[in-house]
């Protein structure tokens, strides 16, 4: 974004902005409301069930997603809005890291529940290793963004900053891929135990149904966050 442009004018057209277009208003309002509602639902459930760590991860993640789309609404009103740009770029980059933290935390408890003996890694290490790796990827992306912003008209520095950002994203994709492979290996190793059911209950009983819902939700969440990282 040009330091001299603050609004759309003949000298500062929308095509010259970072995105080069007006973000869709309806879509961004929908996602801002959607993630806001998810955040409040997570807040209520987390307090009611006292799942404090999970609440922190998913609560922060969903509210930041909502805030990011609010930033994009501001950009729709004024594509040169630096406050809107910074809000959306910060929140939409960082929020999935908290969602991923919730995924890693859930995976840890799934492994503990079904049998840590089937996992190649101690389940307690999942959160430390993979959340730590996600933080590392965010640091790389932030460093790359800083280099690119400080570059001014120096295209070589801009390219260097962009390459650092890409490296951070690639590291996050690699981290999630390794986690996915370990999770898949666990599912294969424990498939007999999974099929036998939960403490001898039939698959029609509620505790067993809830376990399978958790597994499905975990796979869906992991897949969508990974696709998002690859897309970026």
UniProtKB/TrEMBL annotation:
Transmembrane segments: 29-49, 54-75, 87-107, 128-152, 164-190, 211-231
Bilayer disposition of the protein: Multi-pass membrane protein
Record key words, sorted: Membrane, Transmembrane, Transmembrane helix
One GO CC term on file: plasma membrane
The protein's name: RTA1 like protein
InterPro entries in the cross-refs: RTA1 (IPR007568)
Principal location: membrane
Pfam families linked: RTA1 (PF04479)
UniProt-annotated location(s): Membrane
